[in-house]
Structures are given as structure tokens and as C-alpha cells.
Design brief:
Number of helices: 5
Oligomer: single chain
CATH architecture: 3-Layer(aba) Sandwich
CATH class: Alpha Beta
CATH superfamily: Leucine Aminopeptidase, subunit E, domain 1
Strand content: 15-25%
Number of domains: 1
Number of strands: 6
Order of helices and strands: EEHHEEHEHEH
Shape: globular
Largest sheet: 6 strands, mixed
Structural class: alpha/beta
Bound molecules: adenosine-5-diphosphoribose
Helix content: 40-55%
């Protein structure tokens, strides 16, 4: 597991995750950046998928991206936390990891889903992201390389802290489970 500060569209991994909306037809934020970098063929494939529910995830090719595939997931809009947001966000990460495992991907990179336009508090979202990915990785032994690609220093700090705590807890078992910049 590693935490980086960067642009997810530039990562050469098996799959990057897109924080999309239910239409899957593009938008702003990381979604807009991914569609722009992948090229117009992406929206054609997305159209054939007929949308995606909040908490679900769907796979497309990566087209002009360095990443081979894109896993599109739809995070919840933050409404105060009592409208099932934590469960839905956890489901996003779980579904993405399930697809990665099913496809035998060795590397996957996540943006900080829901923490931009959808306004999910960064610390709460980060806890869920790391917990679910770690659980899935432990359970399935894959994908071996998980990158949390933060686009802002606030998220980077949040993820560094969460991963550092987890690393401390795991130090006695396996010192190489986590790494960070
Ligand atoms: N690489 C990595 N992370 C990025 C990039 C990028 N190129 N661009 C933005 N981000 C980060 C944001 O800083 C934020 O931390 O991705 C995180 C998620 O933010 P959004 O893209 O706004 O996604 P989200 O909050 O899930 O809202 C989804 O936004 O773009 C629309 O169509 C999308 O309607 C949907 C909504």
C-alpha cells in the first residue's frame, strides 16, 4: 500500500479508479480529467454500460491512459452522515477491489472518492478507504500494489496518518505491507 500526491491519469497501473456519477458519462474533478486523458472512445464504452448505482462499480478499458483499465465507481454525496454514506462509500471500495481480484489485477490506484464535489469529510473517507482495501487485500492476497493517489495536501496528510497507524499495528507481522512517500 502506498500513498502518493499526484494526478491519477498519469499512473501506469493495471487499473485506476474513477470517482464518477451515476450517468457514467463524465463530469468535473477526477472524472473530467480521466475522460479527457482517456479520449472520446471512453464515453462510447461508458454509454453502453447504462449507468451505475451509488456504491456500485463498472469496468472499462483505459484507452489513451497509461493504465490498462478504469474501474468507475459512484461515491455517495455527503449529507451529514446519517443517510447511509459510510456504508455506500465502503461498498465502492469493496466493489472496486472485487473487480480487481476477479480480473487478477496486480496494481490498482484509487482517488479519494467522494471527497471533492461530493463533500465527504476527508478524514472519515480516508479511514473507510484504507480499512476496506486492507481487509480485502488481507483476505485475497491481491492486488499486491494499492496506491492511494491524493490530489491535495490535506488528503495526503490524512492518508499518511491512517496508513502510518496501520503500519505500526502491523509492524510485528509484516514490515513490508505498507510504504509511503
Ligand atoms: N487525480 C487524482 N485525484 C484527483 C484528480 C486527479 N487528476 N482530480 C481531482 N482529484 C481528487 C479531488 O481532489 C478529490 O480529492 O479526487 C477526489 C474526488 O473528487 P471529485 O473528482 O470531485 O469526485 P467526488 O467528490 O467523488 O464527486 C463526484 O464529481 O466529477 C464529478 O462526475 C463526477 O458528479 C461526479 C462528482
Amino acid at each position: 500500500m502506498q500513498v502518493i500526491l499526484g494526478n491519477i491519469t498519469q499512473l501506469k497501473v493495471d487499473a485506476i479508479v474513477n470517482a464518477a456519477n451515476t450517468s457514467l458519462l463524465g463530469g468535473g474533478g477526477v472524472d473530467g480529467a480521466i475522460h479527457k486523458a482517456a479520449g472520446p472512445e471512453l464515453v462510447d464504452e461508458c454509454r453502453s454500460l447504462r449507468g451505475c448505482k451509488t456504491g456500485d462499480a463498472k469496468l472499462t478499458k483505459g484507452y489513451r491512459l497509461p493504465a490498462r483499465f478504469i474501474i468507475h465507481t459512484v461515491g455517495p454525496v455527503w449529507q451529514g452522515g446519517d443517510c447511509g454514506e459510510p456504508e455506500l462509500l465502503a461498498q465502492c471500495y469493496r466493489k472496486c477491489m472485487e473487480i480487481a481480484i476477479e480480473q487478477k489485477f496486480e496494481s490498482i490506484a484509487f482517488p479519494c472518492i467522494s471527497t471533492g464535489i461530493y463533500k465527504y469529510p476527508k478524514d472519515l473517507a480516508g479511514e473507510i478507504a484504507v480499512k476496506i482495501c486492507y481487509e480485502q487485500m488481507q483476505k485475497n492476497g491481491a492486488p499486491q500494489n494499492i496506491t492511494f493517489c491524493c490530489f491535495d495536501w490535506d488528503n495526503h496528510e490524512v492518508y499518511e496518518r491512517i496508513v502510518a497507524v496501520l503500519r505500526l499495528k502491523n509492524d510485528s507481522q509484516d514490515e513490508n505491507v505498507f510504504s509511503s512517500d
